[in-house]
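Pasting as-is:
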Amino acid sequence: MDISLQEYHNFRSFLSRSCGIEVGENKQYLVKNRLSSVLREFNLASYAELVSHLEAHTVFSNRLKSKVIDAMTTNETFWFRDDSQFLALKKEVLPEFFLNMRGAVKIWSAACSSGQEPYSMSMCVEEMTHSYSEPLNVQIVGTDISEAILNVARTAVYSDMAINRGLDSKVNALYFQKVEAGYQLKPEIARRVRFQQLNLLQSFSDMGRFDIIFCRNVLIYFSDEVKREILHRLVNALEPGGYLFLSSTESIPMDMASLVPVRGGLACYFKKVE
């Protein structure tokens, strides 16, 4: 099914307003590839009909919006992505908090997709437990705009293909058990992590403050203006002295003086100055 220039323009506008994602001017092929099954599922005859329902406020349109956003925000994910940052988390950042622990260390994995990032964090913590006499109190929150992908994360069951993306056989044997549907993450790893649906365009002040925030490979989908706004709110969500991890290809605006880069270690990340 073809999509006209006007239909494409209207859809891009909806996507930008609803979840901040900017789709390029000539990416009709991407939209058609992602949404063809959605149109069939909802028995829609055209993209004009799709956009019309997306702009409505009915039970049907709400279900449709959820499906469309799920389809358009499905991103690649794997275990210990950019492993130098996880080494920095384990060797540089977490030991600082554990040395002066005055309560739970709170970590936020923003745009966590199917859970590989926050569960990788929990594995890092588990590896560190043997080096400390006291229990390590770490609370990890994973958020994503897609409720469907969060339901996958909550099950903590992964296919052979998903397991093989970033995990070696030793880690697999330590933290997973084979089940009929694939591999089940062991409870001692999964229990540190909870998941909740969140659109980064909306306020997240009610989540409280965090010691560490990972927001990687998601800001690239936003306009510069939206990216700047989200970054400012992420900084506000950090405790003084907290750390922000972006992807290795992302940077912060020059005028964001409250964040200073931490260089010379295992990876580059940012610290909120007190």
